[in-house]
Fold this protein.
Amino acid sequence: MLKELLPIGSVVLLKEGTKKLMITGIKPVSEDNPNKIFDYIGVVYPEGYLSNEYNFLFNHNDINDVVFIGYNNPEREDFINLMEKELNKKNSDGI
């Protein structure tokens, strides 16, 4: 469920990870496999964006530790609700 996803700006450590990641987006699509949707895209922390080579796609269940929870407000809640409706619509349409 999308409401369980962490907000952008959250900092996490993945299982088996040695470097923290900061979440920069939710529900990104893999360029290598357009049918594969991940929960998050993130960049290394504290460095931030270095290049596309250092963008990491991962899922919520890959997270071992939440170090910091990013900003949440009504605007984000509205976005999550809209995104959830769209994903449900695509799933029911068989896309």
Notes: Residues 74-92 form the longest helix (19 residues).
